[in-house]
Amino acid sequence: MLDVDALLADPGVRIVVCCGSGGVGKTTTAAALAVRAAEEHGRRTVVLTIDPARRLAQSLGLTELDNTPRPVEGLTGDGDLHAMMLDMKRTFDEVVLSHTAPERAKEIFANPFYQAMSSTFSGTQEYMAMEKLSQLRATDRWDLIVVDTPPSRSALDFLDAPARLGRFLDGRMLRLLMVPARAGGRSMFNLVTASFGVFSKAVQKILGAQLLTDLSGFVSALDSTFGGFRERADRTYRVLQDPQTAFLVVAAPEPDAVREAAYFAERLGAEHMPLAGLVLNRVHRSELPDLSAADSAEAAEKLADEHTLTAQALQVHALLMRQVARESEVSTGFTDEFPQVPIAYVPAQPTDVHDLTGLRAIGAALAAREE
Predict the structure, then answer these.
(1) Which pLDDT tens digit goes with each residue over 77-108?
(2) What is the architecture, at CATH level 2, of domain 4-110+123-161+235-286+327-367?
(3) How many CB atoms lie within 10 A of CB 45?
């Protein structure tokens, strides 16, 4: 069994990353872990969500979340908790401002290519999540940082995208486009055409002349920060491989979700990321586990005429026990493939979790040491 309290109380664990497919309660799990770390273990905790949904803010009693950690009120214990939601463009702006002179930063912000890349470019969100995580860690303000990653398999872009974007920003093509700025301001197209001829025409045809001009201007303005993007991404990537980080894969006892969980576990192992365990949410249990579905259904049939309510209760129990059996079979598929990965089981809740009381209940369930 996964010992969640030991994980949250361990001063050597500074980062907990919750990953998993969509719709399995990942955001709620991240919030519940953060609340428990603050209340039960006295840790200075911040929870960062990359999911733009408002569930985290609502459950923590906040009207909204943004790129700045906001204090969560109403906690007990000696710890404290802040929550925030990643604003990738604002984070990108912060990176540029911190590594570039104000006038050069202004030039970058006005560039159409930068405006597009900082808002919609593939991999930017995940790269900026890495940047924000790095910023939070660098302040040394927090004992524990809990990260709620985007839903679905793309959550592992949290690992992949920074390296891809770093290679792009640090790559040969962009360095080639920087040549005009280093050549005394001659037109890029004149210089490239003179040097490469057919290559220039092909690039212009693929990208479009205006985009290529914007891109060249962006790279020229960004010259002072070159090398920093990949270096920072690599540094944060190494942090995620360090024992101070713990990955929790979150799933529900459903075939698709458990298959995704297995994919995550396999990838994390291949990338040498410290997988602490699996959180299996919305698990059904019965107070009468020894009364099988078959026996319950048979008894319901015998009592149907004379004891209607009892028969109906037995029928409901039979349905529940069948569901318990299906869920057990599904989860066994994961445990058979990854026997070394400990699991925490969270019972299905009668209502949606929407406040601190509900988060505390989830946290207590996560910390329970019995299946």
Answers:
(1) 889 999 998 888 888 888 888 877 888 888 88
(2) 3-Layer(aba) Sandwich (3.40)
(3) 27
